[in-house]
Amino acid sequence: MSSPMENLEDIISNGLVLDIFEAEQALALENLIGINAAAINEQKFGNLFGSLQVILAKCFILAVTRLYEKPNSRYQIRSIPEALNVLEKYAKEFEIKRKSIVISKLEELGYDAGELKKMSDVNLTMKVVKYFSENLPKSLISEAGMPKALDALKTIRDKAIAHREAMEVSGLKIPSYAKIDQLIDLAIRFVIIVGNGYLGINYEIAGRYFHTSGAKRASRSLRRLLVKAGVLQDVS
């Protein structure tokens, strides 16, 4: 049986980090295709890249919704709510490896550093749990008239991706990219605080999430390919 720390590391390393990477990679590729749609269509590649956009949308919808999946009593999942459950349930067993990082990150979020430094590891852990529990995406509202961003993504996943329900799905709208980015940014913030602080793994370099650059590598390669094919102009 794995320890709480091993369980937490599994959720972050084998779950959250991979889903954030998939989401950022798919969004970067989809965005590249979208902003260059006119040039792509002019070269008669619209059908190909339109199909790729559909595939990429399914990819980032699945990845983002997995990040926030609620714990299930029937099987263990790797999500932020599941990680929060582990932190809260076993708070007394966690030793914060890099306490100064957790304190500095919470200070950036508006907490008083002086008060945080006086806290035990247990109380500091509960502060982390409290912050993320209160800031889970129930408050992320998208454009007027649309449901909450995460709810919208889950509806598309459940009714048009995971199952093909006997219903009209053309009216299901993907939230704005700004709202999806907020969902990803919150997950990155969690990985940086908990991954760096509790696991001792550097997920942030010079103020930037370590894996974001790698996730965008595919879109940079696609752009170079389109330039070589004469679809796009070289602006470097």
- In the sheet with the most strands, the strands line up as 1-2
Unreliable segments (pLDDT under 50, ≥5 consecutive)? 139-147, 165-170
Strand content: under 5%
**Could you say which overall geometry the principal axes of the C-alpha atoms support?**
elongated
What's the helix-strand series? HHHHHHHHHEEHH
The major beta sheet can be summarized as:
2 strands, antiparallel
Q: Can you count the beta strands?
A: 2
Q: Between the first and last Cα atoms, what is the distance in angstroms?
A: 53 Å
CA radius of gyration:
20 Å
**Which structural category fits the helices and strands?**
mainly alpha
Overall pLDDT: 87
Assign a percent range to the helix content.
55-70%
Number of helices: 11
Oligomerization state: single chain
Structure, briefly:
This protein is an all-alpha fold. The chain contains eleven helices and two strands, in the order αααααααααββαα. It has a domain at 4-90 and 143-188 and 204-228.
Distinctive features:
mainly alpha, elongated, single chain, 2 strands, 236 residues, two-stranded antiparallel sheet, 11 helices, 64% helix
